Amino acid sequence: MQLDDIHIGMVDLLRRNGRLSIAALAEQLGISRSNAYQRYDWLIETGVITGFTATLDFRAAGFGVAALVFVSLEQNQWGAFRERLPTVPELEYFAVTAGAHDGMLLVRAADVAAIHELVAMNLAQWPSIKSTETVFVMDEQWDRVSLGAGFAGRALRSPGEWAGESPLGSTRHLRIAEPGEEDEGAPLR
Fold this sequence. Notes:
Blueprint: H1 5-16, H2 22-29, H3 33-45, E1 65-73, H4 78-84, E2 91-96, E3 103-109, H5 112-122, E4 129-136
Antiparallel strand pairs: 1-3, 1-4, 2-3
Helix pairs in contact: 2-3
Protein name: Lrp/AsnC family transcriptional regulator
InterPro entries: AsnC-type_HTH_dom, Dimeric_a/b-barrel, Tscrpt_reg_AsnC-like, Tscrpt_reg_AsnC/Lrp_C, WH-like_DNA-bd_sf, WH_DNA-bd_sf
GO molecular function: sequence-specific DNA binding
């Protein structure tokens, strides 16, 4: 099964209000309750929906400052870095990146001094981190992309289909064949 417009609509509705009942989803999408249940279950079983969570107003919760901390890592230290990430209570999100830095942390704290302490006194001391660059978030406008933004109609891959791919945070180095070395059956390394 592939995502279709009804799946996308269901996900968008649930992202706005994760407490919607199946009956409300069915009504808003113009489908039967049975169809809504089947689609809802499929979205969970395939991993499109991984859970439900509360949406926070971070300022009201006392986390008035957000920053993006870009990190450059010692390449042989990815494992150690990943093991320590859960120890950072200010961490909301981490992504492996391409470009000048290896990763980006979205962190939140009460004030700039708390972010400074996190970066200068904590993260900068990790042997796995070569350098950091911190960018403060001035304003947040939108935190959600619609699945309708280009994913409709693409087949979902099961977890088994991901096997053999490089794990995130690992760099695959390829050797480029020199002219005359081409062996169509041999993979480049």
